[in-house]
Amino acid sequence: MTDHQTPVLIFAAFPLPRDVGHDHDLGGIAGTQKTSLITCDLYFSFPDVERIWRAFECEATTTPYQCYDWIKALQKHVLNHDCSALIVVVKSGDRPAALLPLMICKEYGLTICRWFGGSYANYQMPLFVPELTNGWNREDVMEILRQIAKRTSIAAFEFVNQPKSWRGHPNPFACLPHALSPSPVYAMSLTRDFDTLFCERRSAQSRQQHRRKLRNLESAHGPVVFKRVETAEEFERVLDAMIVHRRARFLQLGIPDVFRREGVDHFLRETWQNSRHCPGNPKLVIDYLACEGHILATYTGVMHHKRYSCFINSIDPDATLNRFSPGELLLAEVIRQRCAAGDADLDLGIGFERYKQAWCEADTLVDTIVPTRPIGHLFLAARFSVLRCKGMIKSIPALRRLVRMIPVSYTHLRAHETVLD
């Protein structure tokens, strides 16, 4: 299957211990002997596991979206009414081998378990120590899910947008039966020499157009300034512009406006403030392009272990600015800065967009749904239909453009899309 083919969700079910209860699903993938060395400790509040989580971050392989401060701020400001937290510390023998930041959600009366963050994370996976998890197989991961299901009322696990590996280490949960996610993440490796990278990634014509657009923008609107947010006052001014930009974009696409949701601005504010005062955290940075004080484009990204991950961007909705491509001008400057800073990698988030494909390669993600009770199969069937439709739409540009003209229908299909698109 290629990256652009329609994904087919693979049915994934597992047998649970018979003492769990009569309503659990006992069919599907055949179980083998229990892996006695793998045990799970379950926590249902952040304070109870904070010390363990913070210590584990220091040795684990993780994306910025699974770090304690990121998830805690997200739960505090955005997801506090929609779900409850379930944090699972998986031990191999006596040592913590993985930490699973999960959220329990109610949908149509069903209890669904997902990676914490949902559409506010481009990558979703556990924190793990490769030397302890590299030997895990599918049955080991199934045993983890059995232990969790036995102690909860979860009807199904839904793990979407999972990378197959991270920093060269295999994601232990990617060994479950899976299908390709409807959209990949676009990522690339960086070098110290931006000019060489620019020549490798973009054609001579594209580079010439870039320089011409920059000159024309300065001629039409005054000196172009590229800046990074440094003060609280500057943060509020750029955040206001970002919200205006994104609301216009969401309206154009016919999808829900995440900034109308109470708490998103507070989440960004707290995460940015934590980045200033706690250097060890994933660092939220906001870059913007302005002319004569007017903000034309913004890029908000997360820096973590020499990797820049774009979280959300915005462009002034004024149609007269389109010919200058302010978003692409700013993106080139952000990449230039990350090269100069010595970062190793950069990603532009999930979604098929021309500017992402111009710079980066597609990094495929995988989805898994595991019913744990008979009623969970109803959820699997419904989500299968949604994921299949999304895959068809996203893999055929003409169909995607057509569906974008029908906002109401497309809104439902994009219910689990990331905030960056």
List keywords for this structure.
eight-stranded mixed beta sheet; 421 residues; disordered N terminus; 37% helix; 25% strand; seven-stranded mixed beta sheet; alpha+beta
Please tell me about this protein's structure.
- The protein is α+β, with helices and mostly antiparallel strands.
- Helices cover 37% and strands 25% of the residues.
- It is built from 13 helices and 17 strands.
- The strands form 3 sheets. Strands 1, 2, 3, 4, 5, 6, 9 and 17 form an 8-stranded mixed β-sheet that branches.
- β14, α9 and β15 form a beta-alpha-beta unit.
- α11 packs across α12.
- The longest helix has 22 residues.
- It is globular, with a radius of gyration of 22 Å.
- The N terminus and C terminus are likely disordered.
Largest sheet: 8 strands, mixed
SSE string, helices as H and strands as E: EHHEEEEHHEEEEEHHEHHEEEHEHEEHHH
Gyration radius over CA:
22 Å
Residue windows where pLDDT falls under 50 for at least 5 positions: 1-35, 408-421
Query: How many β-strand runs?
Result: 17
Question: Could you give the distance between the termini?
Answer: 24 Å
Which SSEs are present, and which pair or pack?
Blueprint: E1 38-43, H1 46-57, H2 68-77, E2 83-92, E3 95-107, E4 110-115, E5 127-128, H3 130-133, H4 138-150, E6 156-163, E7 165-166, E8 169-170, E9 179-180, E10 185-189, H5 194-201, H6 204-221, E11 224-228, H7 232-253, H8 264-277, E12 283-291, E13 294-304, E14 307-315, H9 326-340, E15 345-350, H10 354-359, E16 361-363, E17 365-371, H11 376-395, H12 397-403, H13 407-413
Parallel strand pairs: 4-6, 14-15
Antiparallel strand pairs: 1-2, 2-3, 3-4, 3-5, 6-17, 7-8, 9-17, 10-15, 10-16, 11-12, 12-13, 13-14
Helix pairs in contact: 2-8, 11-12
